[in-house]
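Question:
Now give any protein.
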Amino acid sequence: MKVIGVTGGVGSGKSTLLDRIEDKFAACVLKADDLANELKEPGGSCYGPVIELLGEGILEDAREGAPRRIDNRKMAARIFAEPELLGAVNDIIHPAVRKEILKRIESCRQEGKTDYFFLEAALLLEGGYDRIVDEMWYIYADEASRIRRLQEGRGYTPQKSRSIIEKQLNEEQYRQGCDVVIDNSGELEETIRQVERVL
C-alpha cells in the first residue's frame, strides 16, 4: 500500500478532490484536521488534557444526558486571550494526531483492501510528515481560483483570502517539498484525469 501525503494552500480544493479520490479509487483517505477534531471529542485522547490546560470555560453549555463537548469558538477565544497557550495546545494535539495517523495507516495496511492511503494535512511539510509518507503531492491552484473558492465556500472577502494565503508557504516552497504537483485550478474532472495518470 502506497501512503501519499497531500498538501496545498487554503482554497486549493484538497478536500473536494480527496472526496472524489476516495470514491473513484477505493482509497483510504484521512484528513488530519478532522482527526484532530475527533480526538477532542468526549472520550478522545485529547479531550481531558485540553480541558485541563484551558479550563472548563471552553466547554459547550450543559445539555441533559450528553457529555459536554469542547466548543471550538470558546477554545479559540481562550487561546487568543493568551497566545502562549497555543504552543501548549499544539503539544497535546500534534503528537496524538501523529500517533493516531500511524495507527490508522497500519490498520488500513493490515486490511489489505486498498493500494492507496491518502493523508491530507495543511502542515504536512512543516510537521515532518514527509517521513511517514512514501510520496508527497502538492495540490496547486492559481490564486484567482483559490480566492473564488474561499468566497463561495466560506464567504471570505478577497482581502481576507489574500491575507490567509500570504501567511502560508509560497508555491515554490510547496513545490520543493513535494514529489508530484497536481493542478486543481480548472474542472474537477481534469484534475481527476491527472491523478489517474500519476497513479
Remarks:
- The chain has a mean pLDDT of 92.
- Residues 9 and 169 are 7 Å apart (CA to CA).
- The two ends are 12 Å apart (CA to CA).
